[in-house]
């Protein structure tokens, strides 16, 4: 007997089986909210899970619509009557004008909940949490309306005196005070790190703006401008360093052998490699390819542009990568790695590669930060120097490139188009 439970009207399912939350905004509230329809992907094919995820969004939507109630009542209308009763949260969830402002910690809790519904990784959320905790340490857990340009300046002037990895240190050793860290610091955080702090805080306070808790984001425009080029923030590997890395890698087996080779010959992000399934390695139009996608619950992409189909480099074919994958059981992952909610499958390979890099003394020998991600910079620079178009390099890396024609109306590159670009990546030997 089939499932007879009625699907709530605010749940719809796409032709791909993904559930969406969708609710029509009443006419009286559309101008204030800025939308006629509130629609969010629930990123699941499970109806049960979709109902659970949608419950929070329903409350949030009801709060937004409820805030327009006083204005509508002045016009003599009855706004909530235009919504089905099942679409509305309890009147207790409607924000009452002049109610005490939420404190930053409360706003962060709501922001985290929304971000989790949107599929943002736990690691990203924890990184933002650490910066918000740092802000609270410096100026206090104030009502969200009390954060002004003066409190932002107080935050800026304090964090620029902190040592590198301050947020990590404070998370691991919460008993330490800021004064203790500042007094013992032999060097301070970089401007880039400070700007990353601001970037995280901007997104949290932007959520407060969207929720109409504040009218202006106090962290907007508070980044410190740097004169150096964007591409100098993370350095690419030199040819000599590539040789040193793969001299060591070729002595390894299993994922320690394959993952660095895929990082170099495909310019994949580390977690994109680590979360591959056997079915993601396929033949398309006669070309062996790797499909980077977010199809299973344990697969995550950085953004929508990250989904792509990349031809497998001829050196990987000679090395037997396709045969290796074909030998695996159906439905299995390509690499047997431990999964965590925060890091996905990449934690162990990331630490291992970091130790290898330190063993070879590579980061100290370069101009900037070098890690597994530097393979992507290395390949991007190599393809650029060989005359490959920016759009095709973006297609390889999974970046949005070009103007509206390419990003909005153009489709992803077919494998045969990217095959020539991938083929330009020089052999390691």
UniProtKB/TrEMBL annotation:
InterPro entries: DNA_brk_join_enz, DUF6538, Integrase-like_cat_sf, Integrase_catalytic, Integrase_recombinase_N, Tyrosine_recombinase_XerCD. It comes from Halomonas piscis. Belongs to the 'phage' integrase family. Residues 232-423 form the Tyr recombinase domain. The keyword Protease does not apply. This is Site-specific integrase. Gene3D superfamilies: 1.10.150.130, Intergrase catalytic core. CDD domains: INT_C_like_1. Keywords: DNA integration, DNA recombination, DNA-binding.
